[in-house]
Amino acid sequence: MNPEVAATVDLDVHSIRADFPILNVQPYGQHLAYFDNAATTQKPQVVIDTLTQFYEQFNSNVHRGVHYLSQHATEAYEKSREIVRRFLNARSTAEIVFVRGTTEALNLLATTFGKLLQPGDEILISMMEHHSNLVPWQILAKEKELKLKYIPITETGELDLDAFERLLSDRTRVVSIVHASNSLGTVNPIEKIIELAHQNDIPVIIDGAQAVAHIAVDVQSLDADFYVFSGHKIYGPTGIGVLYGKELWLDRLPPYQAGGDMIKRVTLEETTYNVLPYKFEAGTPNIAGAVGLGVALEYVQNIGLSKIARYETQLLEYATRAVEEIPGLRIIGTANQKIGVLSFVMDYTHPHDIGTILDQAGVAIRAGHHCTQPVMDFFGVEGTARASFAVYNTPEEIDQMVKALWQVYQLFGQ
User: Fold this and answer.
1) Is the domain covering 3-36+304-413 a CATH 1.10.1040.50 domain?
2) Which residue out of 18, 39, 303, 371 is catalytically annotated?
3) Is 303 a catalytic residue?
4) pTM value?
5) 245-281 tens-digit pLDDT
6) Residue 343 and residue 247: Cα distance in Å, rounded?
7) What angle do CA 145, 204, 215 make, to 5 degrees?
8) Architecture of domain 48-302 in CATH?
Protein backbone atom coordinates (compact mmCIF):
# COMPACT_ATOMS: atom_id res chain seq x y z
CA MET A 1 0.00 0.00 0.00
CA ASN A 2 1.17 3.53 -0.76
CA PRO A 3 3.14 4.61 2.33
CA GLU A 4 1.65 8.11 2.29
CA VAL A 5 -1.76 6.63 3.02
CA ALA A 6 -0.68 3.47 4.83
CA ALA A 7 0.97 5.48 7.59
CA THR A 8 -2.36 6.46 9.10
CA VAL A 9 -4.52 3.48 8.13
CA ASP A 10 -5.79 1.39 11.04
CA LEU A 11 -7.55 -1.15 8.82
CA ASP A 12 -6.29 -4.36 7.28
CA VAL A 13 -7.60 -3.42 3.85
CA HIS A 14 -6.10 -6.40 2.08
CA SER A 15 -7.89 -8.78 4.47
CA ILE A 16 -11.12 -6.86 3.86
CA ARG A 17 -10.58 -7.21 0.11
CA ALA A 18 -10.35 -10.98 0.54
CA ASP A 19 -13.96 -10.91 1.80
CA PHE A 20 -15.19 -9.74 -1.64
CA PRO A 21 -14.86 -12.48 -4.25
CA ILE A 22 -15.82 -10.25 -7.19
CA LEU A 23 -12.63 -8.25 -6.73
CA ASN A 24 -10.77 -11.22 -8.20
CA VAL A 25 -12.42 -10.63 -11.58
CA GLN A 26 -9.90 -9.38 -14.16
CA PRO A 27 -11.62 -7.34 -16.90
CA TYR A 28 -9.58 -7.53 -20.11
CA GLY A 29 -6.84 -9.25 -18.11
CA GLN A 30 -6.45 -6.17 -15.87
CA HIS A 31 -6.67 -5.78 -12.10
CA LEU A 32 -10.21 -4.62 -11.30
CA ALA A 33 -10.27 -1.18 -9.68
CA TYR A 34 -13.93 -0.82 -8.81
CA PHE A 35 -14.79 2.84 -8.27
CA ASP A 36 -18.54 2.72 -8.93
CA ASN A 37 -19.52 2.30 -5.30
CA ALA A 38 -21.97 5.20 -5.25
CA ALA A 39 -24.03 3.24 -7.79
CA THR A 40 -23.75 -0.03 -5.88
CA THR A 41 -21.22 -1.63 -3.56
CA GLN A 42 -19.88 -5.14 -3.93
CA LYS A 43 -20.98 -7.88 -1.51
CA PRO A 44 -18.81 -9.70 1.02
CA GLN A 45 -18.82 -13.48 1.03
CA VAL A 46 -20.77 -13.56 4.30
CA VAL A 47 -23.71 -11.77 2.64
CA ILE A 48 -23.57 -14.03 -0.42
CA ASP A 49 -23.48 -17.11 1.84
CA THR A 50 -26.42 -15.79 3.88
CA LEU A 51 -28.60 -15.49 0.76
CA THR A 52 -27.66 -19.00 -0.34
CA GLN A 53 -28.28 -20.41 3.13
CA PHE A 54 -31.69 -18.77 3.35
CA TYR A 55 -32.90 -20.31 0.10
CA GLU A 56 -31.32 -23.68 0.87
CA GLN A 57 -32.46 -24.03 4.49
CA PHE A 58 -35.17 -21.52 5.50
CA ASN A 59 -37.07 -20.44 2.40
CA SER A 60 -40.66 -19.77 3.39
CA ASN A 61 -43.06 -16.87 3.75
CA VAL A 62 -43.05 -14.89 6.96
CA HIS A 63 -45.62 -14.11 9.63
CA ARG A 64 -48.38 -16.37 8.34
CA GLY A 65 -47.03 -19.87 8.80
CA VAL A 66 -46.92 -22.08 11.89
CA HIS A 67 -44.57 -24.65 10.37
CA TYR A 68 -40.82 -24.97 10.98
CA LEU A 69 -39.58 -23.15 7.87
CA SER A 70 -41.93 -20.21 8.27
CA GLN A 71 -41.02 -19.78 11.92
CA HIS A 72 -37.30 -19.74 11.09
CA ALA A 73 -37.79 -17.34 8.16
CA THR A 74 -39.84 -15.00 10.34
CA GLU A 75 -37.25 -15.14 13.11
CA ALA A 76 -34.44 -14.25 10.70
CA TYR A 77 -36.50 -11.48 9.07
CA GLU A 78 -37.39 -9.83 12.36
CA LYS A 79 -33.85 -10.26 13.69
CA SER A 80 -32.68 -8.14 10.77
CA ARG A 81 -35.23 -5.48 11.65
CA GLU A 82 -33.70 -5.31 15.12
CA ILE A 83 -30.20 -5.05 13.60
CA VAL A 84 -31.39 -2.09 11.52
CA ARG A 85 -32.96 -0.51 14.60
CA ARG A 86 -29.66 -0.72 16.46
CA PHE A 87 -27.71 0.48 13.42
CA LEU A 88 -29.79 3.67 13.24
CA ASN A 89 -30.45 3.84 17.00
CA ALA A 90 -34.19 3.98 16.39
CA ARG A 91 -36.40 3.86 19.45
CA SER A 92 -38.40 0.82 18.36
CA THR A 93 -38.58 -1.79 15.60
CA ALA A 94 -42.06 -0.39 14.93
CA GLU A 95 -40.20 2.54 13.32
CA ILE A 96 -38.29 0.32 10.85
CA VAL A 97 -40.13 -0.42 7.59
CA PHE A 98 -38.57 -2.67 4.96
CA VAL A 99 -38.96 -1.35 1.40
CA ARG A 100 -37.34 -2.13 -1.95
CA GLY A 101 -34.90 0.75 -1.62
CA THR A 102 -34.52 4.49 -1.21
CA THR A 103 -36.59 5.21 -4.30
CA GLU A 104 -39.60 3.29 -3.01
CA ALA A 105 -39.24 4.87 0.44
CA LEU A 106 -39.29 8.38 -1.03
CA ASN A 107 -42.24 7.56 -3.29
CA LEU A 108 -44.05 6.11 -0.28
CA LEU A 109 -43.53 9.31 1.68
CA ALA A 110 -44.47 11.63 -1.19
CA THR A 111 -47.64 9.64 -1.85
CA THR A 112 -48.74 9.34 1.77
CA PHE A 113 -47.85 12.93 2.70
CA GLY A 114 -49.86 13.98 -0.32
CA LYS A 115 -53.00 12.73 1.41
CA LEU A 116 -52.37 15.27 4.20
CA LEU A 117 -51.59 18.33 2.08
CA GLN A 118 -53.83 21.04 0.65
CA PRO A 119 -53.54 23.28 -2.42
CA GLY A 120 -51.07 26.08 -1.78
CA ASP A 121 -49.00 24.08 0.74
CA GLU A 122 -45.25 24.15 0.18
CA ILE A 123 -42.64 21.40 -0.07
CA LEU A 124 -38.98 22.32 0.32
CA ILE A 125 -36.19 20.29 -1.26
CA SER A 126 -32.76 21.20 -2.68
CA MET A 127 -31.26 21.60 -6.13
CA MET A 128 -28.82 18.74 -5.47
CA GLU A 129 -31.44 16.02 -4.95
CA HIS A 130 -31.31 12.70 -6.75
CA HIS A 131 -34.24 12.39 -9.15
CA SER A 132 -35.88 9.95 -6.73
CA ASN A 133 -36.20 12.79 -4.21
CA LEU A 134 -37.29 15.31 -6.82
CA VAL A 135 -39.62 13.74 -9.37
CA PRO A 136 -42.12 12.25 -6.84
CA TRP A 137 -42.54 15.70 -5.27
CA GLN A 138 -42.94 17.31 -8.69
CA ILE A 139 -45.69 14.82 -9.53
CA LEU A 140 -47.38 15.43 -6.20
CA ALA A 141 -47.12 19.22 -6.55
CA LYS A 142 -48.89 19.10 -9.92
CA GLU A 143 -51.59 16.73 -8.72
CA LYS A 144 -52.36 18.67 -5.52
CA GLU A 145 -51.55 22.23 -6.68
CA LEU A 146 -48.70 22.51 -4.20
CA LYS A 147 -45.68 24.79 -4.40
CA LEU A 148 -42.31 23.07 -4.72
CA LYS A 149 -39.39 25.25 -3.59
CA TYR A 150 -35.68 24.54 -4.04
CA ILE A 151 -32.75 25.35 -1.76
CA PRO A 152 -29.99 26.71 -4.04
CA ILE A 153 -26.41 25.46 -4.05
CA THR A 154 -23.12 27.34 -4.24
CA GLU A 155 -20.26 27.07 -6.72
CA THR A 156 -18.52 24.64 -4.36
CA GLY A 157 -21.59 22.39 -4.35
CA GLU A 158 -22.82 23.26 -0.86
CA LEU A 159 -26.31 24.21 0.27
CA ASP A 160 -27.06 27.87 0.81
CA LEU A 161 -28.33 27.72 4.40
CA ASP A 162 -29.22 31.42 4.48
CA ALA A 163 -31.49 30.84 1.52
CA PHE A 164 -32.93 27.78 3.25
CA GLU A 165 -33.97 29.88 6.25
CA ARG A 166 -35.57 32.45 3.97
CA LEU A 167 -37.48 29.77 2.06
CA LEU A 168 -39.10 28.35 5.19
CA SER A 169 -42.60 29.77 5.59
CA ASP A 170 -45.85 29.20 7.43
CA ARG A 171 -47.00 27.20 4.37
CA THR A 172 -44.01 24.80 4.40
CA ARG A 173 -45.35 21.34 5.23
CA VAL A 174 -42.33 19.09 4.67
CA VAL A 175 -38.59 19.34 3.99
CA SER A 176 -36.93 16.47 2.09
CA ILE A 177 -33.16 16.65 1.78
CA VAL A 178 -30.22 14.47 0.82
CA HIS A 179 -27.66 13.68 3.53
CA ALA A 180 -24.76 13.21 1.10
CA SER A 181 -24.86 14.02 -2.62
CA ASN A 182 -24.24 11.12 -4.97
CA SER A 183 -22.88 13.37 -7.73
CA LEU A 184 -20.89 15.92 -5.70
CA GLY A 185 -19.98 14.05 -2.53
CA THR A 186 -21.21 16.98 -0.42
CA VAL A 187 -22.23 16.11 3.14
CA ASN A 188 -25.07 18.42 4.07
CA PRO A 189 -25.49 19.92 7.57
CA ILE A 190 -28.65 17.96 8.27
CA GLU A 191 -28.47 18.61 12.00
CA LYS A 192 -28.86 22.34 11.36
CA ILE A 193 -31.52 21.76 8.70
CA ILE A 194 -33.58 19.60 11.05
CA GLU A 195 -33.17 22.11 13.88
CA LEU A 196 -34.37 25.04 11.75
CA ALA A 197 -37.28 23.08 10.32
CA HIS A 198 -38.40 21.85 13.72
CA GLN A 199 -38.41 25.41 15.04
CA ASN A 200 -41.27 25.83 12.59
CA ASP A 201 -42.86 22.42 13.37
CA ILE A 202 -41.95 21.11 9.91
CA PRO A 203 -41.11 17.40 9.52
CA VAL A 204 -37.87 16.46 7.75
CA ILE A 205 -37.16 13.52 5.44
CA ILE A 206 -33.50 12.57 5.01
CA ASP A 207 -32.31 10.65 1.95
CA GLY A 208 -29.42 8.68 3.42
CA ALA A 209 -28.69 6.43 0.43
CA GLN A 210 -25.14 7.73 0.02
CA ALA A 211 -24.45 8.45 3.68
CA VAL A 212 -25.04 5.29 5.70
CA ALA A 213 -22.00 3.43 4.35
CA HIS A 214 -19.72 6.34 5.27
CA ILE A 215 -21.26 8.21 8.22
CA ALA A 216 -22.57 6.88 11.54
CA VAL A 217 -26.27 7.79 11.77
CA ASP A 218 -28.17 8.18 15.04
CA VAL A 219 -31.73 9.11 14.18
CA GLN A 220 -32.63 9.95 17.78
CA SER A 221 -29.68 12.30 18.17
CA LEU A 222 -30.48 13.91 14.81
CA ASP A 223 -34.17 14.09 15.75
CA ALA A 224 -34.90 13.00 12.17
CA ASP A 225 -38.56 12.41 11.38
CA PHE A 226 -37.70 10.06 8.52
CA TYR A 227 -34.45 8.53 7.30
CA VAL A 228 -34.24 6.26 4.24
CA PHE A 229 -31.53 4.17 2.60
CA SER A 230 -30.86 1.22 0.27
CA GLY A 231 -29.16 -2.03 1.20
CA HIS A 232 -27.10 -2.33 -1.98
CA LYS A 233 -25.23 0.91 -1.20
CA ILE A 234 -23.90 -0.59 2.04
CA TYR A 235 -22.60 -3.99 0.93
CA GLY A 236 -26.05 -5.60 1.12
CA PRO A 237 -28.37 -7.14 -1.49
CA THR A 238 -30.28 -5.24 -4.14
CA GLY A 239 -34.05 -4.87 -3.86
CA ILE A 240 -34.08 -4.13 -0.13
CA GLY A 241 -34.05 -0.85 1.76
CA VAL A 242 -35.21 0.84 4.93
CA LEU A 243 -37.65 3.57 5.80
CA TYR A 244 -37.17 4.81 9.34
CA GLY A 245 -39.98 6.99 10.59
CA LYS A 246 -40.93 8.34 13.98
CA GLU A 247 -43.80 6.26 15.27
CA LEU A 248 -46.07 9.29 15.66
CA TRP A 249 -45.61 10.11 11.97
CA LEU A 250 -46.00 6.54 10.72
CA ASP A 251 -49.20 6.29 12.72
CA ARG A 252 -50.48 9.47 11.10
CA LEU A 253 -49.65 8.55 7.50
CA PRO A 254 -52.09 6.33 5.55
CA PRO A 255 -50.95 3.00 4.01
CA TYR A 256 -49.01 3.16 0.77
CA GLN A 257 -50.08 -0.16 -0.75
CA ALA A 258 -52.87 -2.56 0.10
CA GLY A 259 -52.76 -6.33 0.31
CA GLY A 260 -51.67 -9.11 2.59
CA ASP A 261 -49.89 -8.52 5.91
CA MET A 262 -50.75 -4.80 6.09
CA ILE A 263 -54.22 -5.66 7.40
CA LYS A 264 -55.57 -6.70 10.77
CA ARG A 265 -59.17 -7.42 9.80
CA VAL A 266 -60.98 -7.33 6.45
CA THR A 267 -64.72 -7.52 5.91
CA LEU A 268 -66.74 -6.72 2.83
CA GLU A 269 -67.60 -3.39 4.40
CA GLU A 270 -64.24 -2.16 5.75
CA THR A 271 -60.59 -2.90 6.57
CA THR A 272 -58.65 -2.38 9.78
CA TYR A 273 -54.94 -1.81 9.20
CA ASN A 274 -52.16 -3.73 10.90
CA VAL A 275 -49.89 -2.28 13.56
CA LEU A 276 -46.55 -0.67 12.72
CA PRO A 277 -44.39 -1.37 10.86
CA TYR A 278 -46.52 -3.93 9.00
CA LYS A 279 -49.04 -1.29 7.94
CA PHE A 280 -46.50 -0.31 5.27
CA GLU A 281 -45.32 -3.81 4.27
CA ALA A 282 -48.01 -5.11 1.92
CA GLY A 283 -47.50 -8.49 0.30
CA THR A 284 -44.60 -10.92 0.48
CA PRO A 285 -41.46 -8.91 1.25
CA ASN A 286 -37.91 -9.46 0.04
CA ILE A 287 -37.23 -11.79 2.95
CA ALA A 288 -33.81 -13.01 1.83
CA GLY A 289 -32.81 -9.44 1.03
CA ALA A 290 -33.79 -8.23 4.49
CA VAL A 291 -31.83 -11.06 6.12
CA GLY A 292 -28.83 -10.29 3.92
CA LEU A 293 -29.07 -6.60 4.79
CA GLY A 294 -28.86 -7.39 8.48
CA VAL A 295 -25.67 -9.37 7.90
CA ALA A 296 -24.21 -6.54 5.77
CA LEU A 297 -24.86 -3.99 8.52
CA GLU A 298 -23.20 -6.22 11.08
CA TYR A 299 -20.23 -6.60 8.73
CA VAL A 300 -19.85 -2.82 8.52
CA GLN A 301 -20.21 -2.39 12.26
CA ASN A 302 -17.56 -5.03 12.92
CA ILE A 303 -15.10 -3.01 10.82
CA GLY A 304 -16.22 0.28 12.35
CA LEU A 305 -17.83 3.16 10.49
CA SER A 306 -15.43 5.69 11.99
CA LYS A 307 -12.46 3.70 10.67
CA ILE A 308 -14.11 3.34 7.29
CA ALA A 309 -14.79 7.09 7.13
CA ARG A 310 -11.20 8.02 8.02
CA TYR A 311 -9.77 5.64 5.46
CA GLU A 312 -12.10 6.74 2.65
CA THR A 313 -11.29 10.39 3.42
CA GLN A 314 -7.61 9.56 2.95
CA LEU A 315 -8.37 7.89 -0.37
CA LEU A 316 -10.36 10.93 -1.52
CA GLU A 317 -7.58 13.34 -0.53
CA TYR A 318 -4.96 11.18 -2.26
CA ALA A 319 -7.03 10.92 -5.45
CA THR A 320 -7.87 14.63 -5.45
CA ARG A 321 -4.22 15.64 -5.27
CA ALA A 322 -3.32 13.23 -8.06
CA VAL A 323 -5.99 14.24 -10.58
CA GLU A 324 -5.47 17.96 -9.99
CA GLU A 325 -2.12 17.61 -11.78
CA ILE A 326 -3.82 16.57 -15.04
CA PRO A 327 -4.22 19.54 -17.43
CA GLY A 328 -7.80 20.43 -18.31
CA LEU A 329 -9.35 18.29 -15.57
CA ARG A 330 -11.87 20.11 -13.38
CA ILE A 331 -13.39 18.71 -10.20
CA ILE A 332 -17.14 19.27 -9.84
CA GLY A 333 -18.02 19.52 -6.16
CA THR A 334 -15.42 20.95 -3.81
CA ALA A 335 -17.34 21.17 -0.53
CA ASN A 336 -15.42 21.19 2.74
CA GLN A 337 -17.30 18.12 3.95
CA LYS A 338 -17.42 15.25 1.45
CA ILE A 339 -17.80 11.50 1.32
CA GLY A 340 -15.48 9.58 -1.01
CA VAL A 341 -16.89 10.87 -4.30
CA LEU A 342 -14.60 12.43 -6.91
CA SER A 343 -16.65 13.90 -9.75
CA PHE A 344 -14.83 15.61 -12.60
CA VAL A 345 -14.81 16.68 -16.25
CA MET A 346 -11.99 16.96 -18.78
CA ASP A 347 -12.27 19.93 -21.13
CA TYR A 348 -11.33 18.00 -24.24
CA THR A 349 -13.53 14.91 -24.09
CA HIS A 350 -16.92 13.55 -23.02
CA PRO A 351 -17.29 11.69 -19.70
CA HIS A 352 -18.39 8.58 -21.60
CA ASP A 353 -15.07 8.56 -23.48
CA ILE A 354 -13.27 8.84 -20.15
CA GLY A 355 -15.26 5.94 -18.75
CA THR A 356 -14.60 3.78 -21.82
CA ILE A 357 -10.83 4.31 -21.77
CA LEU A 358 -10.66 3.69 -18.02
CA ASP A 359 -12.71 0.52 -18.46
CA GLN A 360 -10.09 -0.86 -20.87
CA ALA A 361 -7.54 -0.25 -18.10
CA GLY A 362 -9.65 -2.26 -15.62
CA VAL A 363 -11.02 0.83 -13.86
CA ALA A 364 -14.79 0.96 -13.28
CA ILE A 365 -16.23 4.46 -12.85
CA ARG A 366 -19.64 6.00 -13.60
CA ALA A 367 -20.13 8.54 -16.39
CA GLY A 368 -23.26 10.64 -16.92
CA HIS A 369 -25.61 12.89 -15.02
CA HIS A 370 -25.98 10.48 -12.07
CA CYS A 371 -29.73 11.12 -11.85
CA THR A 372 -29.00 14.71 -10.80
CA GLN A 373 -29.59 16.67 -13.99
CA PRO A 374 -30.35 19.98 -12.22
CA VAL A 375 -26.87 19.75 -10.64
CA MET A 376 -25.31 19.24 -14.06
CA ASP A 377 -27.30 22.19 -15.42
CA PHE A 378 -26.08 24.38 -12.56
CA PHE A 379 -22.44 23.60 -13.32
CA GLY A 380 -22.97 23.88 -17.06
CA VAL A 381 -21.96 20.32 -17.95
CA GLU A 382 -23.77 17.42 -19.61
CA GLY A 383 -22.40 15.00 -17.06
CA THR A 384 -19.30 14.06 -15.12
CA ALA A 385 -16.95 11.15 -14.67
CA ARG A 386 -17.38 9.91 -11.10
CA ALA A 387 -15.04 7.76 -9.06
CA SER A 388 -16.54 6.74 -5.72
CA PHE A 389 -14.58 4.91 -3.05
CA ALA A 390 -15.28 2.10 -0.61
CA VAL A 391 -13.38 0.42 2.20
CA TYR A 392 -11.92 -2.23 -0.12
CA ASN A 393 -10.29 0.28 -2.47
CA THR A 394 -6.56 1.04 -2.30
CA PRO A 395 -4.19 3.87 -3.22
CA GLU A 396 -2.61 1.57 -5.82
CA GLU A 397 -5.99 1.40 -7.56
CA ILE A 398 -6.15 5.18 -7.55
CA ASP A 399 -2.71 5.18 -9.20
CA GLN A 400 -4.14 2.78 -11.81
CA MET A 401 -6.99 5.22 -12.49
CA VAL A 402 -4.73 8.26 -12.65
CA LYS A 403 -2.39 6.51 -15.11
CA ALA A 404 -5.40 5.86 -17.36
CA LEU A 405 -6.54 9.49 -17.03
CA TRP A 406 -3.14 10.63 -18.24
CA GLN A 407 -3.72 8.39 -21.26
CA VAL A 408 -7.01 10.22 -21.86
CA TYR A 409 -5.09 13.50 -21.79
CA GLN A 410 -2.48 12.19 -24.21
CA LEU A 411 -5.20 11.02 -26.63
CA PHE A 412 -7.48 14.06 -26.56
CA GLY A 413 -5.80 16.90 -24.69
CA GLN A 414 -2.55 17.47 -26.50
Assistant:
1) no
2) 371
3) no
4) 0.96
5) 999 999 999 999 888 887 788 888 888 878 899 999 9
6) 38
7) 135
8) 3-Layer(aba) Sandwich (3.40)
